[in-house]
Amino acid sequence: MKDSAQEHRSQAPGSVACCVITVSDTRTPETDKSGTLIRDLLQENGHRLESYTIVKDDYDLIRETIYSASTRAGVEAILLTGGTGISPRDSTYEAVTSLMDKNLPGFGELFRLLSFQEDVGPAAMLSRAIAGTIGSKAVFSMPGSAAAVRLAMNRLILPELGHVMREIYKKES
């Protein structure tokens, strides 16, 4: 007998239309290793890139960019990198949570656990990685380092992205 998660994954869409947002005061399209990594991993895994942008680490700009992506037809998931720490300029967490309808606390919890186990150690507690939904869109917010992005994408997001969308699209019974 199949477990329900396995069954749900088998019914999930194989390709998800994604918007990638890098939050940084200094990165450019040429120097944005984390944003490039997200885009490459999405495309290597059969997902579609609908848009990509870099936005300054400013609460209002981040919030406006996320909101705009969440209202675009054709975008199913929004993936952010950067601005998840605790420095005074880090405001991605606040911008994302101000728009979320539902929080997926397990994403942040698992990300921090995996980071702790890999090589970050107790500094993993400084990450405010978060995921949830904004309407019918999935949103995942990751730290700005390429190592953190690789971990989040390969261990958490890519294995479950289709399943997350299946659950979001599920009709009430």
Protein described:
It is built from six helices and six strands; from the N terminus they run αβαβαβαβαββα. α5 (105-120) runs antiparallel to α6. With 173 residues, it is an alpha/beta fold. Helices cover 46% and strands 19% of the residues. It has helices at residues 4-10, 33-44, 59-70, 92-99, 105-120, 146-169; strands spanning 17-23, 48-55, 77-81, 102-103, 130-134, 137-142. May be involved in the biosynthesis of molybdopterin. Belongs to the MoaB/Mog family. Pathway: Cofactor biosynthesis; molybdopterin biosynthesis. Residues 19-164 form the MoaB/Mog domain.
Task: Summarize, please.
46% of the residues lie in helices and 19% in strands.
> Per the principal axes of the C-alpha atoms, what is the gross shape?
globular
Number of E strands: 6
Q: Major β-sheet, in short? A: 6 strands, mixed
Query: What is the helix content?
Result: 40-55%
Attribute tags:
Molybdenum cofactor biosynthesis protein B, MoCF_biosynth_CS, MoaB, molybdenum cofactor biosynthesis, 46% helix, 173 residues, alpha/beta, Molybdenum Cofactor Biosythetic Enzyme, Chain A
Give the helices and strands, then pairings:
Blueprint: H1 4-10, E1 17-23, H2 33-44, E2 48-55, H3 59-70, E3 77-81, H4 92-99, E4 102-103, H5 105-120, E5 130-134, E6 137-142, H6 146-169
Parallel strand pairs: 1-2, 1-3, 3-6
Antiparallel strand pairs: 4-5, 5-6
Helix pairs in contact: 1-6, 2-6, 3-4, 5-6
